[in-house]
TrEMBL record:
Protein name, entry field: Type III secretion system chaperone SigE
Compartments it resides in: Cytoplasm
Principal subcellular localization: cytoplasm
Keyword list, A-Z: Chaperone, Cytoplasm, Virulence
Family to which the UniProt record says this protein belongs: Belongs to the IpgE/SigE chaperone family.
Pfam families: Chaperone_III
Any one Gene Ontology cellular component term annotated for this protein: cytoplasm
InterPro entries xrefs: T3SS_chaperone (IPR013095)
Transmembrane regions: none
Length: 97
């Protein structure tokens, strides 16, 4: 069975990268993939970690209303959006999230 990541690249009409599994949307948006036997994890840093507590709380509240998990990167310098899909997901589910 073909991996969900390969099916996602096929659905987008893209060639899978030979090195790190990465989708570059533009200069500011990059989606990193981590695939296991059971899940496909997509991680996208989307902004510097806010200094303002209200802004941070706003983004963290999204964890309760969305399938996307918002957190900080390992260096605590950026907010990242994390989305996990089971390998049994369809290409459409991966595209629409």
């Amino acid at each position: 069975m073909e991996s969900l990541l390969n099916r996602l690249y096929d659905a987008l009409g893209l060639d899978a990268p030979e090195d790190e599994p990465l989708l570059i949307i533009d200069d500011g948006i990059q989606v990193y993939f981590n695939e296991s036997d059971h899940t496909l994890e997509m991680c996208c840093p989307f902004m510097p970690l806010p200094d303002d507590i209200l802004t941070l709380q706003h983004f963290l509240r999204l964890n309760y209303t969305s399938a996307v998990t918002i957190g900080a990167d390992a260096d605590n310098t950026a907010l990242v959006a994390l989305y996990r899909l089971p390998q049994t997901s369809t290409e459409e589910e991966a595209l629409t999230g």
